[in-house]
Amino acid sequence: MSRKLEDLQCPECKQKNILSFDEVWCGNTIRFDVEESQITSTGYIGDNGAPQKVIALCGSCRHEWVVRGVKQITDIEAPRLCHYLDGNDYE
Ligand SMILES: [Zn+2]
User: What is the pTM of this model?
Assistant: First the structure.
């Protein structure tokens, strides 16, 4: 099942102004390496587990809610925009 981005509205203020989505996973981990008695400051996400739910954040009133009928971001129909991360952290 999938939902269209244009159909999703905030249950609180009824605006269609979603700022972001958080994809929540069950059974996943974020790993922090230890090197020379130090713990890395940023972790990386493992590829275990399964996507569980998606939480939307309203840009108008900051309400967060679980999007019904959607388990992962690919269940939301919308054109994808590519934005590139600041290259320095990724090599
Ligand atoms: Zn809202």
Answer: 0.70
Contact yes or no for 81/40 (Cβ under 8 A): no
Query: How many angstroms is it from 40 CA to the middle of ligand 1?
Result: 37
pLDDT, residue 91, reads 45
In a domain, 87, yes or no: no
Q: How confident is the model at residue 87 (pLDDT cuts 50, 70, 90)?
A: low
Q: Which residues surround ligand 1, an ion (CB under 5 A)?
A: 10, 12-13, 58, 60-61, 63
* Structural domains of the chain, count: 1
Question: Ligand 1 centre and the CA of 7: distance in Å?
Answer: 14
Q: Does a structural domain hold residue 88?
A: no
From CA 66, how far away is CA 69, in angstroms rounded? 9
Residue 18 lies in a domain: yes
Q: Is 89 helix (H, G, I), strand (E, B) or coil?
A: helix
